[in-house]
Design goal:
single chain, 239 residues, mainly alpha, globular
Length: 239
C-alpha cells in the first residue's frame, strides 16, 4: 500500500520533479563556476528538496509518515544552510569514495520506476519522495571531506537506514542503493573518514624559506639574483 501511495505521489507531482532537475542543473553550473559557494548552495538546495518532498508526501494519506520525516530533515538542512555546522569540500576526499558517491548522486537524479512513461533522468521523484532525496543528501555528506554536522549526518543516515530497509523488504530494488549509502554513512560516522594528504603540508612557512626555494630551483631561464651570494667577479676582486 505504501509503495502504491509513493508512486501516486510521484506521478501526481511530475512538474515538481522536472523543476527540481532544472534546479539541480543550475546548482551544478553555479558550483562549477564558484566552487567556494558549495557550503551554502548545496545545503540550501537540499533544504528546498526536503521541503517540497514534505509538501508532496503530506498530501497523500498513505505517505504521511514519510512526510513527517521529510519535515524534520527540512528543518535540519535549513539550519545547516543558515548556520553551517560542517564544511563542504572535496579536495582531500579519496577518489574511490568520491567516485562512488558521484555515481549514487547520479542514480538519485535518475531514480527509476516513479516517472510513468516519462524519462526518469528528467522526472525522477527527487524532491518529491524521500528515497532519491535521501540518496542525494547522503551522497553529499559522504563525499565531503568534512567535518560534518553530527546531528544532521546521523539523522539523515538513520532515515536512510530505516526507509532503505523498508524498501528492500517491500521488494523495491532501487532502495538497495539508499540502504548502501546509509550503511556507508554509518561506517564513516563510527570509524571516521580517511582523507588524502593536505596540499599545504610542505608549503613554505616563512619569507626566507620561500626565497630559498626560489633560488634552489633549476631553470633554463635567468631567475632573480640572490643579493646574499657573491658573484664570480666580486670573488675575483677579493682575491
Amino acid at each position: 500500500m505504501e509503495t502504491t501511495a509513493l508512486r501516486e505521489v510521484a506521478l501526481g507531482h511530475l512538474p515538481l520533479s522536472g523543476f527540481h532537475h532544472l534546479l539541480a542543473f543550475v546548482v551544478l553550473v553555479t558550483l562549477w563556476s564558484r566552487r567556494e559557494a558549495a557550503g551554502r548552495v548545496l545545503p540550501t538546495y537540499l533544504a528546498a528538496a526536503f521541503g517540497t518532498a514534505s509538501f508532496a508526501l503530506l498530501s497523500q494519506a498513505g505517505a504521511r509518515a514519510h512526510g513527517a520525516v521529510a519535515v524534520i530533515l527540512t528543518v535540519l538542512w535549513l539550519r545547516e544552510a543558515l548556520s553551517p555546522g560542517g564544511r563542504i569540500a572535496f579536495r582531500r576526499t579519496p577518489r574511490f569514495r568520491l567516485t562512488l558517491m558521484v555515481i549514487a548522486g547520479a542514480f538519485a537524479l535518475s531514480y527509476p520506476g516513479y516517472s510513468g512513461e516519462l524519462p526518469p533522468f528528467i522526472f525522477s521523484p527527487l524532491g518529491v519522495t524521500l528515497s532519491p532525496t535521501l540518496i542525494a543528501a547522503l551522497a553529499l555528506l559522504n563525499a565531503t571531506e568534512g567535518p560534518t554536522d553530527r546531528l544532521l549526518h546521523w539523522t539523515t543516515t538513520a532515515a536512510g537506514l530505516l526507509f532503505g530497509t523498508l524498501g528492500v523488504a517491500a521488494g523495491v530494488w532501487q532502495d538497495g542503493v539508499l540502504l548502501f549509502v546509509a550503511l556507508y554513512a554509518a561506517l564513516l560516522l563510527i570509524r571516521g573518514r580517511k582523507l588524502l594528504p593536505s596540499d599545504d603540508v610542505d608549503a613554505p612557512r616563512s619569507v626566507d624559506e620561500i626565497r630559498s626555494r626560489i633560488y634552489s630551483r633549476r631553470s633554463l631561464l635567468p631567475g632573480p639574483r640572490d643579493t646574499r651570494r657573491r658573484s664570480r667577479s666580486s670573488r675575483r676582486r677579493l682575491r
